[in-house]
Amino acid sequence: MHDGFTSAQDRAAFIAGLPKAELHLHIEGSLEPELMFELAQRNGIAIPFASVDEVRAAYAFSNLQDFLDIYYQGMAVLLTERDFYDLTAAYLSRAHADHVRHVEIFFDPQGHTERGVAFETVITGITRALDDAQAQHGISSKLILCFLRHLSEAEAEATLDEALPWLGRIDGVGLDSSEVGHPPSKFARVFARAKGLGLKIVAHAGEEGPPEYVHEALDLLKVDRIDHGNRSLEDPALVARLAAEGMTLTVCPLSNLKLCVVDDIAAHPLKTMLDAGLAATVNSDDPSYFGGYVGANYQAVADALDLSKADLVTLARNSFAGSFLGAEEKAKHLAAIDAYA
Ligand code: HPA
Ligand code: ZN
Asked: Looking at ligand 1, which atom is closest to the CA of residue 252?
């Protein structure tokens, strides 16, 4: 057992109670099979699965696209404002159980508007649940609109137009979906417009795509954070730059395992990232599909990489420091981590 803990149970208890922020969570990826069935029934939608077990059995992926095909199919059960509320509320109660104090969640409006669901339906359902979680659990939140990178930049521009009336509730924009073949440069103009509107900027880069995509996210999109960023490690100059800039990486260990970004959790680069001075964080990405919420992600890497108490505290500190909270709120959360540790 590594420094700072007397046993594996001691470390597990420490992880469970550690105050955390989650910075990389696709709300549609928190749709549990049980809720998928409930919503399919409520909305009279046929789904190609006979049981919850059958759904779970279908969650075997060999790459990102395998997962995305199932993910877009799964979200088809989401139709009404109440559906988006129920989805978001279910995630937030799981996060609360994991001692998550702040969340910055992604949503994929194009996955809904292309099915005829109004942007307003999606955002009102999600934000009502975020407001209720603040009141009931004291969880604060930010909301990040993601553009689907397999679609065109013109479609991203149209989505940003639709978001304009809701900018009071949207804190940032991101870039997700099929990475390879859809570099950040494809979206340089729409991200420049979003930045001009005062929105924070994030992008998935270096999950399956090459280090060059991380460079583009930094240089062309002017990101505030990199989502994933694993393949940055192939480029020592890029690692040095990310470390020098204090750029937060939102790393997702169980996602990386399920999507075969790593072959084995024991080979996960999280500890290497920390040792290289990178501001890595631990997140769940699409917890219903990848087998665990944020606490389970911390636990998996702590066990596989034998993380110390100091490593775990660094990860939790990075999660608040890399958030879009104001300086005063960050300081309050960082002090709570220090008091806990
Ligand atoms: N990568 C890219 N797009 C996504 C992901 C992911 O892990 N999850 C949901 N959309
Ligand atoms: Zn993601």
From this structure: 7
Residue 328 near residue 108 (C-beta atoms within 8 A): no
Residues with a known catalytic role: 207
Write the DSSP string, 144-174.
Answer: EEEEETTS-HHHHHHHHHHHGGGTTT--EEE
Q: Which of 93, 173, 160 is nearest to 130 (CA)?
A: 93
For residue 3, the model assigns a pLDDT of 76
Whether the model pTM is above 0.85 = yes
Kindly state the helix (H) or strand (E) to which residue 2 belongs, with its residue range.
none
Ligand 1 neighbours, Cβ below 6 Å, are: 26, 29, 64, 71, 176-177, 204, 207, 255, 285-286
Sign of CA dihedral 215, 220, 223, 226: negative
CA distances from 135 to 127, 131, 271 (A): 12, 6, 36
The CATH number of whichever domain residue 161 belongs to comes to 3.20.20.140
Give the range of the structural domain holding residue 272, as residue numbers without chain letter: 8-32+79-340
Q: What is the pLDDT of residues 225-246, one digit of tens each?
A: 999 999 999 999 999 999 999 9
For 153, phi then psi, to 5°, come to: -65, -35
How many domains does the chain divide into? 1
